[in-house]
Amino acid sequence: MNTRLASLAFRLTFGLIFSFSAAIYLPCRAQLNLPQASPLSQVRQVVGLTDISVTYHAPGVKGRAIWGKLVPYGQVWRSGANQSTRIQFSDDVTIGSQHIPAGEYAFYTLPTDSVTCYVILNRDTARWGTEGYDAQADVFRIRVAMTGCEFTETLRYGFSNVRPTSAFLDLSWERKRISVPIEVEVIRHAVANIRKAAATARPDDWLILTQGAEYLVKNDTEPELALELLDRSIKIKQNYYNTWVKARLLAQKDEYSTAIQLTKKAMQLGQQTNTTQEEVSPYPTLAPDMKLAMAQWKIRQ
Which of these, 17, 81, 167, 226, is most buried using a 10 Å CB contact count? Predict the structure, then answer.
């Protein structure tokens, strides 16, 4: 009896030692790197000064019926495959007149029929598809139209009609497209950047001051700040560029006589200039605009 017990104890001990040794010395299993059925994708677009990105997994049609079948009507859809699609805004945006704070959101859609769909932004970005989806975490919902498009085998997100303050985010799959209008704030952020740049500019950097002022003049905003920057720039180095920008600023304030005199001065400085500063339009390209502006201002005096 004792011999059998001793033999059993030996076998158990040997087995444990072998298993432990194998766990230490046998190599770990290799991980196969194979193509995903719905590969991870990302699209990014800067609109104005706002960075917008969408991260999603892109399924294929693969001969299947999509709308109303694989993507049922009347049900919330992950708007892609695998985990929920995510959209991120670097700054606050506006969608359909609703303010959306900067941040990352889960991007869901709810097709109600073949021509209508709801777009949903949800706070919870850690879900696998729609598992555990909670409408209480929705921050936004808008009704948009589903339109026809060319056949798209692999689901694709993209941006269209990109303008300085707006763009459309498009989801295209099979023969349907969902477009979401997005608007961004530009002027406020640009003015903040101009103030920061002016505060940290080198003592001899007249150019950055003029560029900031010209942006303000073109957008007819913050005239006092524009005048301050131009006066600083001209004090550092007066040239045809900063003088011409100041003339346009004064014309916006209906000071046409002074604007005309400054434009004449800008033309004299331009004619005396044989070289051009980097990122500044050469004087010959500006001269026609100067002549036309003076003619118009003389009429308005």
Answer: 226
